[in-house]
Amino acid sequence: MATPFLDSDFYGFAGRLSARESQSIGEIRAFFASEVRPLVNDYWARAEFPHQLIPGLAGLGLFGPEWPETRQFESSAVYQGFCTLEMARVDASLCGFVAVQSGLAMGSIGVGGSEQQRTHWLPRLATGEVIGAFGLTEPLSGSDTARGLRTTAERRGEHWVLNGAKRWIGNATFADIVVIWARDTADGQVKGFIVDTCTPGFTATKIENKLSFRLIQNADITLDEVVVREENRLPGIRSFADVAVVLRLTRAGVGWLAVGNSIGAYEAAVAYARASEQFGRPIGSRQLVQDLLARCLGNITASIALCVQASALLDAGLQRDEHSALTKSFVSSRARETVAWAREVMGGNGIVLGYGAAKPFADAEAIYSFEGTREMNTLIVGRAITGQAAFV
């Protein structure tokens, strides 16, 4: 039996999915409804991570569906996007955990790892036996990471020594391994290293008092003479251009995450509009409320369309940096509007966690900034349009 389309998928884009993909989406939807939704607000409010959910997420095949070593069945990038949408409509920050584990940590090894590294790490990451993180952003280097990466890697015989600092590294407080990106002191090129978090000199400190993506345990990392064996260097990473391949795979996925987060707020607003009464009638019968909901649905529909096409290009091997950049920039911007309108439908209740709009409203701010700010992504698109780089 096919999984019913969401009402918020107004044009039925999920009709592109195969029967097996649709079945899997139904399983993810059921798990998030029964296992995640009842507890997620409490964990979000306490800024804690629900570790007990990891085996269930792994069992659904959400870690590494694109790699032959870990996929449960052949699937498309469009399907993987709808997986992200389903997760994010219940909780964007738990979806962010999956994105770090699957897209960034496993993606780095899948793209740049040797056959031995892939065989050793990918299956263990897929089951959740090993938790991974992705260490690129630095305290003094975010948007200018391609040129401004300050963490260094020095070759000493059969080992490398890493020194530097990272910031905003998701999962890092409880990860077993972190893929650290560092600049080789010999040739100046960026290289990737699989670093065991128990290595002397590696320290991860949780970033406290976040107002967004509160389940994600972001950390400041310090690397003080951290020794890594040559066998843990990713041999397929020779420069930042190879890092960009990983980011290209994940950036469009952030668009899907933004859509799912918007849908979560929109669905809560629709339910509220149907149930809440003012002046003797449901507020959903009022023109101004219907206008807000229609605006939300328009943003969601346009955003799904953009995400579907970007993922279809990825399936066809035709996606370029500017495709994923436009998707992320446009969709995350529209998401900010959508969650604000959804909160507006609820009036003062919209800022109370239990009504369903406050959490996506807050989480939209994190989505807007990570995987490249709106401005940086528009410059990637602008370069494609004009042939001129305007980054500095």
UniProtKB/TrEMBL annotation:
Gene Ontology BP terms: fatty acid beta-oxidation
Chain segments annotated as transmembrane: none
Gene Ontology molecular function terms on file: acyl-CoA dehydrogenase activity; flavin adenine dinucleotide binding
Keywords associated with the record: FAD, Flavoprotein, Oxidoreductase
Domain Acyl-CoA dehydrogenase/oxidase C-terminal: from-to ranges: 247-385
InterPro entries for the chain: ACX4-like (IPR045008), Acyl-CoA_Oxase/DH_mid-dom (IPR006091), Acyl-CoA_Oxase/DH_mid-dom_sf (IPR046373), AcylCo_DH-like_C (IPR036250), AcylCo_DH/oxidase_C (IPR009075), AcylCoA_DH/ox_N (IPR013786), AcylCoA_DH/ox_N_sf (IPR037069), AcylCoA_DH/oxidase_NM_dom_sf (IPR009100)
Highest taxon of source: Bacteria
Residues of the Acyl-CoA dehydrogenase/oxidase N-terminal domain: 27-129
Pfam families reported in the protein's UniProt record: Acyl-CoA_dh_1, Acyl-CoA_dh_M, Acyl-CoA_dh_N
Sequence ranges assigned to domain Acyl-CoA oxidase/dehydrogenase middle in this UniProt record: 133-226
Cofactor: FAD
Family of the protein in this entry: Belongs to the acyl-CoA dehydrogenase family.
Annotated protein name in UniProt: Acyl-CoA dehydrogenase
Species whose genome carries this gene: Subtercola vilae
